[in-house]
Every structure is written in C-alpha cells, then in structure tokens.
Write a structure and sequence with these properties.
The protein is an all-alpha fold. The chain has one domain. It contains 12 helices and no strands.
Length: about 270
C-alpha cells in the first residue's frame, strides 16, 4: 500500500517537473560552472603543500567537488519539505492534501521523494563529469561507506526539513530553521574550505551543525577510501541526530497541522 502511494507521488511530481523541460539541465549547469572555477583555483594553489588538505589527498579540486555537490544535496533535504508545503499553500490545495486518508506525516515525506531521487542523479552526474572532464580519481573510493553516509545524512537533514515544514505551516513565510541550518551550514560546514582554517570560535560553532560531520565522512569515504568502521564517529553523530530529529520533526509537523485545522489557517499564506 505504501509502495503504491510512493509510486503515485513520484508519478505526480514527474508529470509536474517534466513540464519544465530544461530545469534539470539548468540545475546541473548551476553546479557545474562553479566547479570549473574551483578546478582552476585548484590548479593555482596545487603547488602548495597545505597540511589542512593533506588528510583529504592534498588536492583542492576533489575537496571542493565533494563539498559543493554533497552540500547541495543536504540543503535540498533541508528545504524540500518546506517548499512542498509552501507550493501547496500557494496552489490552495494544502488543506485538501492534508485531509486525505493518508496521514499528513506520510504525505509530506512522500511528496519529497522525487526531489531526493533527481538530486541523487544530479550528484552522480557531477561526479561522473568530474571523472571524465577533470580526471578525478575514484580508484581509492569506498562507495559502500559513501552510501551509508548518504543514507544517515539524509535522515538527519530530513528531520530538520520536517521541522522546517512545521515552521512554514505555523509562520507561513520566513522559516528560521532553514535559514539557520541552510545559510550557516554553507559557511561553517566546510563545503569550500577545511574547517581547520577557520578561527577557533568558528570551529566550535561548526561542531553543532550535522553538515560538518557529513562532509567530513563523505570526503574520507570518496577521497581516502575509509571503511564504515573507520568513520564510526561522524556516522554515530549523524545516526543520533536523525534518531532525535525525525521523531521530533514528525511530532512538530502533526502539532502544527492540528493547530492550523483548529484555527482554520491552513489555507492562509
């Protein structure tokens, strides 16, 4: 039953998104163009023996490619739930959608499946282009570890994303959760530069954000080939974060929907 519903949501979103024929291509180019810049930056600084990049293999471009591609996936996981709610609000169908036989929590999760699938394909294409066009070497990559990191990170950020959706139901506009964990994560998580390069007080702030552990684990899996056991510390943090935030997010979203039904504000935007 749940699988049939998931397929129905995937089909619905595919029909909607396929009407925007070049959107996927433009999103890919939006990621690819900055990576070209990072490639040449990597050529510029490639002769420097920076100890802060040594543990990732010493080259800047692979470090930046993993950081940019994966952080975009994480920010999607953070924002896709709230954007789904916002889109339904603007279309005037949020109350009808959440009043269906399927629970609101299941609806919000299934409504985001298509974005996760397409963004995962997006990441794969970026890594393939990095290999074909820029000679990125994946011979040491541990793809099993990378898959585990991806699943645990998606869970942790989905919990934040569902909390973000609850905020949109309550506040309608101006989501503080996405702003804090979106904008701040890009700076503090080390997507473009090692966390070690920042001042000590910023490094202390960085440990609060799950993206810091996610990028560290993904880079060590892809660039250094570390096993799941070798990555147990960041993976434990991501697993614990997801275990706390997913139930909290589901509870908060259900509470926000119930409040909106009582107030008659679900249709407001």
């Amino acid at each position: 039953m749940l699988m049939r519903k998931a397929l129905a949501f995937l089909k619905r979103d595919y029909l909607i998104e396929s009407s925007y024929k070049f959107a996927f291509v433009f999103e890919l180019l939006t990621t690819l163009f900055p990576l070209i810049s990072f490639y040449f930056i990597g050529q510029l600084v490639g002769s420097r023996n920076d100890s802060r990049l040594a543990k990732y293999g010493g080259a800047y471009f692979p470090f930046a490619l993993v950081g940019v591609a994966f952080s975009q996936y994480l920010l999607l996981a953070l924002g896709t739930f709230s954007r789904t709610i916002r889109r339904s609000q603007m279309a005037g169908c949020l109350e009808a959608t959440l009043s269906a036989q399927t629970s609101p929590q299941v609806v919000i999760i299934l409504s985001s499946l298509y974005c996760f699938v397409t963004k995962l394909l997006h990441i794969v294409l970026v890594f393939v282009l990095g290999w074909l066009a820029f000679g990125l070497d994946y011979r040491n990559a541990n793809f099993l570890s990378a898959a585990v990191v991806l699943v645990l990170t998606a869970g942790a950020f989905s919990g934040l994303g569902i909390l973000s959706a609850a905020a949109i139901v309550l506040l309608k506009k101006g989501d503080p959760i996405e702003w804090i964990f979106g904008a701040a994560s890009s700076l503090l998580g080390g997507a473009l530069f090692p966390v070690e390069i920042m001042p000590r007080w910023m490094q202390c702030l960085a440990v609060v954000f799950p993206i810091t552990y996610a990028l560290e684990a993904m880079r060590m899996a892809i660039l250094r080939g570390q096993t799941v056991w070798m990555l147990w510390k960041p993976l434990a943090v991501l697993a614990a974060t997801g275990a706390v935030l997913i139930p909290l997010g589901v509870w908060a979203f259900a509470a926000a929907v119930n409040k909106g039904r009582r107030d008659g504000s679900l249709m407001h935007y």
